[in-house]
Task: inverse folding
């Protein structure tokens, strides 16, 4: 009897769970999520989405449920912003994309199908991981959004590589690779590799930006560049793929023959040098990742202790060959500055060890960035940082004054004092600012103690009166100043504004150009042979079209030349004049219909009164060419617009209007969102978003087919220089040129040049070769 009651209780519990699942599936209502009515317009839906997305974005809202709420808002907007999906949802309660083929059968089968999706394939009850919304938390932890990718992942990829997986709902291949992905993530994340997951259903913008057109896809990002993984998804292949992303010259192989040269490189590179001693023949991936993260601060070498060429080093530095050992060398290559030795060394331990030894004892200031790091600005009285600067000629490096300064820095025990040196002949402005009278220090070294007060360069300092020779008296004088400074910060009585340091290690222009060209060529090579072919089809089509036209022109020219040679008797002059007389009126007759019928251009303003007749209910085949204007530029731009389109007014299918940007900015920005590129897009909530100048934009609107073509004004360098010489003009006038006026007037010269290429654009519009941007429906013009 008790067993029977227990069985009934379990059956009741199962039925209750199923009912809750069905109710939760039916509970999603996109209208309720966005807070709009079923009769809401696209403009109202857009406003509601922007407001809710700004409020619930996970980067701004720290609420634990913000991410789920944001996903619901995005899904609701995806349904309601698409007229077809919205219609399917209104009629059948679902926005499936296959509704258009079998609408009536799906209407009858909807209830059963919805029950089928949420019961038989629900992992929360039967543990079938088909629904990615409730998949294992391993993916939810690494989900990426577009803003997070642009603002955090791309900058961080210059310090560590990222491995990103593209997934989606009902992706059976994604389920197949899930165990391998979990294992690889657990291993590589501990080594310092960034992990990311992009849901192609909810983050289509990001997936398209990454170039992922299928799921699952795995790609790597390093230094802002994207590389796709094309091999079988197994642990070793993924590990090798991450290793292949790293530059090949990160770690140098060091032996008895080259270790002196390697460690002596601190003089030229201005960096500490790191040596790893290990028994592995290949450089460990953890060490490569560490070298990439700190490549701007240290140089890394690897010693394979199993080789015969390493005995001298291991004996000289007393290295235990049976455990991995890391040595850091600074100015003295005979003795390491710091040592760490442990079996199974973890990344956090290595990072802490490297961070404590990022700089030399007396590093050389080679750039303004390095100056900010070594001599930070004072934040409070308890966080004072003093810099002792040795101003020395470059030829005096490794001389007695520098060696004495280095030994003094080595004996220093104060955390608030940093020792640096500057080549006075390379940084002449910097040195002359600290030396009030430079004549006594000509060709000699000097020491200054300074404290930075602001990021703008203001410092307080004290310069030793006598040149620095490295004698014992100089050391006692400097030590006395530092002891007095701990008790009385007012010792630094002089004040100055230091100029920015020149970057001594920056490559010259030709090298920078060569590196940029090589990177571009390598990117093109990878794109042609490794990346998605869908991205390369437009370029290949353009290349083959150009080749076809070129060879076609050569062949036609060859045949025409041969025909001309076969003609023995050329026509008489009278026959030529007779032919010319016949063809001339024919040309005039054919082109007379294209000439303007009026002596003026009729341009009307697009307002809420004329909006329906001039756009929404425009006859098929007709287009309205609309110029975007603002108050100060109305007269000059209308005049230039009329001149550019005058030759096209003979067509009865073209209508011309202008739109006030001050009144209808929101309507314009709604249309322009359909014309955005998939390249890096600025954040729509940026503080300068409402300050964009759309003056001079021209839209060709086809009201019947619901698409538009876009003309954007072009800048010219010589026009900007002409505008700059004219004084202070309004920021909206920084484009273009004018006709027949002086180059330095305050007239409409910079404005009219915005439409200088409009006539060419109009010709392409009539040819039908412009790109068309389709929209679901025309928004209301408030």
Result:
């Amino acid at each position: 009897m008790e067993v029977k009651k227990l069985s009934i209780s379990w059956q009741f519990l199962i039925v209750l769970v199923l009912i809750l699942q069905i109710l939760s599936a039916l509970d999603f209502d996109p209208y309720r999520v966005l807070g709009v009515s079923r009769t809401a317009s696209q403009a109202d839906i857009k406003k509601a989405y922007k407001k809710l997305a700004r409020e619930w974005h996970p980067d701004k809202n720290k609420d634990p449920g913000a991410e789920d709420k944001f996903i619901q808002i995005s899904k609701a907007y995806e349904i309601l912003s698409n007229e077809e999906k919205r219609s399917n949802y209104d009629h059948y309660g679902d926005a499936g994309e296959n509704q258009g083929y079998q609408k009536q059968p799906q209407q009858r089968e909807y209830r059963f199908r919805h029950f089928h999706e949420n019961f038989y394939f629900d992992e929360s009850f039967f543990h079938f991981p088909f629904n990615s919304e409730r998949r294992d938390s391993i993916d939810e932890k690494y989900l990426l959004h577009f803003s997070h990718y642009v603002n955090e992942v791309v900058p961080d990829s210059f310090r560590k590589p990222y491995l990103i997986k593209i997934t989606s709902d009902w992706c059976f291949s994604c389920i197949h690779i899930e165990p391998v992905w979990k294992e690889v993530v657990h291993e590589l994340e501990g080594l310092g590799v960034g992990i990311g997951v992009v849901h192609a259903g909810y983050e289509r913008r990001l997936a398209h930006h990454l170039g992922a057109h299928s799921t699952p896809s795995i790609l790597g990002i390093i230094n802002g560049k994207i590389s796709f993984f094309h091999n079988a998804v197994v642990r070793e292949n993924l590990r090798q793929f991450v290793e292949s992303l790293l530059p090949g010259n990160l770690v140098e192989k060091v032996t008895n023959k080259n270790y002196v040269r390697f460690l002596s490189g601190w003089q030229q590179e201005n960096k500490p040098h790191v040596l790893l001693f290990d028994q592995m023949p290949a450089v460990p991936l953890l060490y490569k990742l560490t070298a990439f993260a700190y490549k701007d601060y240290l140089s890394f070498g690897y010693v394979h202790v199993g080789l015969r060429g390493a005995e001298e080093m291991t004996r000289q530095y007393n290295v235990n060959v049976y455990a991995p050992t890391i040595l850091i060398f600074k100015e003295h290559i005979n003795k390491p500055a710091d040592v760490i030795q442990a079996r199974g060394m973890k990344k956090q331990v290595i990072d802490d060890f490297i961070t404590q030894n990022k700089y030399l004892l007396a590093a050389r200031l080679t750039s303004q960035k390095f100056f900010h790091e070594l001599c930070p600005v004072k934040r409070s009285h308890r966080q004072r940082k003093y810099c002792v600067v040795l101003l020395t000629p470059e030829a005096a490096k490794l001389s007695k004054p520098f060696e004495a300064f280095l030994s003094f820095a080595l004996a220093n025990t104060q955390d608030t004092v940093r020792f640096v040196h500057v080549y006075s002949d390379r940084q002449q402005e910097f040195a002359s600012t600290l030396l009030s009278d430079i004549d006594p220090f000509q060709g000699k070294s000097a020491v200054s103690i300074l404290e930075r007060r602001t990021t703008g360069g203001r410092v307080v300092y004290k310069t030793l009166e006598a040149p620095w020779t490295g004698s014992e008296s100089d050391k006692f004088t400097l030590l006395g100043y530092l002891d007095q400074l701990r008790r009385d910060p007012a010792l630094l009585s002089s004040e100055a504004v230091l100029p920015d340091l020149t970057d001594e290690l920056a490559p010259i222009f030709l090298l920078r150009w060569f590196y940029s060209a090589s990177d571009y060529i390598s990117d093109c090579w990878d794109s042609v042979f490794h990346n998605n072919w869908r991205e390369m089809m437009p370029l290949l089509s353009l290349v083959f079209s150009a080749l076809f036209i070129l060879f076609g022109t050569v062949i036609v020219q060859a045949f025409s030349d041969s025909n001309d040679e076969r003609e023995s008797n050329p026509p008489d002059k009278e026959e030529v004049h007779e032919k010319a007389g016949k063809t001339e009126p024919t040309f005039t007759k054919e082109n007379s219909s294209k000439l303007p019928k009026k002596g003026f251009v009729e341009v009307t303003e697009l307002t809420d009164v004329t909006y329906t007749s001039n756009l929404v209910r425009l006859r098929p085949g007709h287009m309205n060419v609309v110029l975007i204007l603002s108050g100060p530029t109305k007269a000059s731009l209308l005049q230039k617009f009329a001149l550019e389109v005058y030759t096209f007014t003979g067509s009865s299918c073209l209508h011309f209007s202008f739109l006030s940007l001050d009144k209808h900015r929101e309507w314009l920005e709604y249309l322009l969102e359909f014309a955005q590129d998939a390249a890096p897009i600025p954040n729509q909530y940026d503080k300068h978003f409402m300050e964009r100048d759309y003056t001079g934009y021209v839209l060709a609107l086809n009201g019947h087919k619901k698409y538009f073509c876009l003309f954007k004004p072009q800048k010219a360098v010589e026009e900007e220089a002409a505008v700059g010489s004219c004084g202070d003009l309004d920021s909206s006038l920084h484009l273009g040129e004018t006709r027949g006026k002086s180059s330095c007037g305050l007239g409409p010269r910079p404005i009219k040049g915005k439409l200088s290429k409009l006539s060419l654009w109009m010709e392409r519009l009539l040819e039908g070769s412009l790109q068309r941007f389709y929209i679901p429906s025309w928004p209301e013009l408030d």
